[in-house]
Amino acid sequence: MPSAESTQASAHEPGPVPPTREDEVAAAGSELIGGPIGRRALRAASWWTPVRVVALVAIGMFALGLVQKAPCYHSAWFFGASSQYTKACYSDIPHLYQGRGFADGLVPYFDKLPGDMPYLEYPVLTGVFMEVASWLTPHSGTMQHQEQWYWMVNAGMLMVCTAVIAVCVVRTHARRPWDGLLLALAPAFALTATINWDLLAVALTAAAMLMWSRGRSLAFGVLLGLATAAKLYPVLLLGPLLVLCWRAGRWREFGSALGGAVVAWLVVNVPVMVFASDGWWQFYRFSHDRGVDFGSFWLIWSQESSDPPSTDFVNTTATLLVVLCALGIAALALTARRRPRFAQLAFLIVAAFVLTNKVYSPQYVLWLVPLAVLARPKWRDFLIWQACEVAYFLGIWMYLAYTTSGDAHKGLPAEGYHWAIVLHLAGTLYLCAVVVRDILRPERDVVRRAGDDDPSGGVLDRAEDVFVLRAQDPAPYDEGPGEGTRVEWGGRPAALPEGRSL
Question: How far apart are alpha carbons 299 and 418 in whole angstroms?
Answer without folding.
Answer: 8
